[in-house]
Design brief:
Layout: H1 42-57, H2 60-75, E1 83-87, H3 99-123, E2 128-132, H4 138-146, E3 149-152, E4 165-168, H5 174-180, E5 187-191, H6 193-197, H7 208-216, E6 218-221, E7 232-236
Parallel strand pairs: 1-2, 1-4, 2-3, 4-5
Antiparallel strand pairs: 5-7, 6-7
Length: about 250
């Protein structure tokens, strides 16, 4: 993950190492707004993403994640997901030209898209995709639109969460999670309760939604990839079986 020099904020931890946390609110972390001098074209971003996407789909992490999705979907009564929200994947053309931030943004975005594609395959219906990232340039937004994701301005995505939503936010700050989880979603992918309880100076009130999910949801470890998903957990609500699902014959890549 990017270090402080890459424009990421570091959070103190009681034990072990914690990856950088970042927010999806551009007024919370100064300097993380859109690149004022973007240099990458849409074609360049697309070409880079194709390479990163192929690496992700061939990785052991995606193979392990597919196995988890194969187990979780039926175990949680095949939840009906109608909407998927990606919070703060990072800019595809960062202001400081950080190779780490750029690659992380692409990997985390592709991981989100592959999860959605997998859930679409298993459920048999399309899922609306939304992304919120204050650091996006206009070209970044065009790229997301080309991928089939609707870009919304912060904090619009938080109020879009409902009981049929997948919320995906890797290494966000706690207050971002708290805003996004005002209404508990069907699936949450992000730092789990144990990660926050290991940190120093955490406001207990910000963990209320996390504690509810930890007590009532099934949780699964999200396989790491070069520290990009370190400490990430998937929380799945056990719901009423959906009537429009089908038995999967395999998993889409």
């Amino acid at each position: 993950m990017g270090q402080e020099g890459d424009g990421w904020s570091q959070v103190s931890r009681k034990r072990g190492r914690k990856p950088a946390q970042r927010s999806t609110r551009d007024d919370e972390l100064p300097g993380l707004g859109p690149n004022p001098n973007p240099g990458l074209s849409l074609a360049a971003i697309q070409k880079y993403h194709e390479r990163v996407s192929q690496d992700w789909l061939e990785s052991d992490s995606w193979e392990a994640l597919q196995a988890t999705l194969r187990d979780a979907f039926p175990a949680c009564n095949r939840p009906s997901i109608t909407k998927a929200i990606c919070l703060g994947p990072g800019p595809f053309d960062p202001a400081n030209d950080s190779v780490s931030i750029r690659r992380t943004a692409h990997v985390q975005t592709e991981a989100f898209r592959s999860i959605v594609a997998n859930l679409e395959y298993q459920s048999g219906h399309k899922i609306k995709c939304i992304v919120q990232e204050p650091s996006f340039t206009n070209v970044d937004k065009m790229f997301c639109n080309e991928l089939g994701m609707e870009v919304v301005e912060s904090p619009a995505a938080f109020s879009m969460v409902d009981a049929d939503t997948l919320v995906y936010g890797i290494h966000m700050e706690l207050r971002t999670y708290a805003e996004a989880l005002t209404t508990l979603p069907a699936i949450f992918v992000g730092a789990g309760l144990s990660e926050w309880e290991a940190l120093m100076d955490v406001d207990p009130s910000g963990l209320e939604s996390m504690r509810k999910m930890d007590a009532a949801y099934k949780n699964y470890r999200f396989p790491d990839l070069n520290y990009m998903f370190h400490g990430t957990t998937m929380y799945w609500r056990e719901g009423v079986p959906s009537s429009d699902t089908k038995e999967p014959e395999g998993l889409a890549k």
